[in-house]
Amino acid sequence: MINDDQYILYGPNEEYFINYQSLGEYLLDCLRKRDYDDIIAVDPESEEQLTCGKLLEKSVRLATVLERMGVTKGDGIAIVSENNINYYIPILASLYLGAIFNPLNVEYTYGELKHAIDLSKPKVIFSSFISLRKILRLKEECNYINEIVLMTQSLEVLDNIKTMESALQNVIVNVQDFRVDGVGLSDHAALFMSSGTTGLPKCVGLSHGNFIGSLSVYRDPRYLNVSNDVTVSVIPFFHIYGFLTHISAVFCTLKVVLMKKLESELFLRAIKNYKCTRLFLVPTLLQYFVQNSKVNSDVLSSVKFIHITAAALGNTVYQAALQKLKHITVIQMYGTTETAGACTVQKVTDNINTIGYLVPNIICKLVNPNTHRTLRPFQYGELCFKGINVMKGYYNNPTETCTAIDSDGFYHTGDVGYYNENGQLFIIDRIKDIIKYKGFQVAPAELENLILNHNKVQECGVIGIPDEKAGELPLAFIVPKPGVKLSAEEIVKFVSENISSQKHLHGGVKFVKKIPKTSSGKISRLLLREIYNESIGQ
């Protein structure tokens, strides 16, 4: 619904009942009500399984262990690990206690980890083996870290390091008597790292209530309606999209085939062998599905839905997906870390490249990022959201919180989009990625979408490079398709023939072997800029 006086969009206004005091209490009750042998997650390499019964027992026992380690309500725990089926256990144990979990990228450098944990100050860190050396070094330097727990067993003997298994040994707890007490919906539940719209990575403080509101979208028949489904997921736990997908296996009847990282052959084999019914992907993975001949009807025969979020989806890839994956419904969503997940979901009947409509109890406005004036339909502006899912704020950072959330309570996303007369929303690009060429705004995603139409292009990424006269010049990094000859001139000419002059590749073309991406599959423009700087000797 659109308020024509103020140009504000409203999702369905519905009474919202939360029958639980916290997310931990809710998830604990979900596990108790389900069958012991219901499968939460499977490791496709080892075929090890985590069932509801095992997760219930281990999470309650670990909560007891954490209490003995001195973890109480409001204390932090960090998790630094690749995806694995043990990941669920410390998350749930933390939520039961009212502690605040902080999942971190296993690929972080020591400096990045130090920055993150200096913000969250965890008492206990759960680490995978590949991160352990960095975590041990951090413990020596940070007096607030009391314990390190290794997530999985190790063939190496490590003095004074508990493993998850050894920590749980000889801990006897009656899971039916266990209670979650003293934790409220407004209390912090988690800290997720986000760059926000400015500055160094910040800790996004999300409450128990934020998550309960967000997760309801996964159960709602009008939106995702995840039920009796199987998914194969490579999205990491530390990403809000991955977390919501994985944790929905606890309160929905979803089985997650959990991959440590993207290995194309294993990924496709798991989709087929486990009869995957629903996939949660990012645009670059959907592009891979469209372009790769190995992704065929045999592999995807059981898949009914593909959900897309985490970055703008170009219309070229979207239309190609509709053509190739005709038996699959492709549904786009939009959300951010700061909004604890989905704000919009595309309807199954939509056949245009939209991020959909607002979910219940969410309000949206689009504003001119310079004047902050609220915009009408079809005017490009910054997407801003308000509602039950919007973060408490950046943890211990009131200055950045005030910058991100305006006086009316709207979170400013830093994403550029627009809406039509029906209230459908569309996303264009990130404000901070917008290229300023002679006063014109050029969206890299728009150029990437165009260049992908070229029949010799496999992948591309676009950045702006500095120029004294113009401000910035659009530069394209190109990965040609295997076995073809492609010149920079061909790409420059192709773009100039298909788009307005200010959006031409005035910065030229560079050929690379691959486009660097983040762990969630987004194009890493930061790394592209580093590649450019190295090429000019900076």
UniProtKB/TrEMBL annotation:
Q: What GO molecular functions are on record for this protein?
A: CoA-ligase activity
Record InterPro entries: AMP-bd_C, AMP-bd_C_sf, AMP-binding_CS, AMP-dep_synth/lig_dom
Q: Name one Pfam family in it.
A: AMP-binding
Q: Does the keyword Acyltransferase apply?
A: no
Coiled-coil features, chain-numbered ranges? none
The UniProt record lists the keyword Protein biosynthesis: no
Task: Please tell me where this protein is predominantly located.
Answer: other
Q: Which key words are in the record?
A: Ligase, Peroxisome
Domain AMP-dependent synthetase/ligase residue range list: 37-395
GO cellular component, alphabetical, reads: peroxisome
- The name of this protein is Luciferin 4-monooxygenase
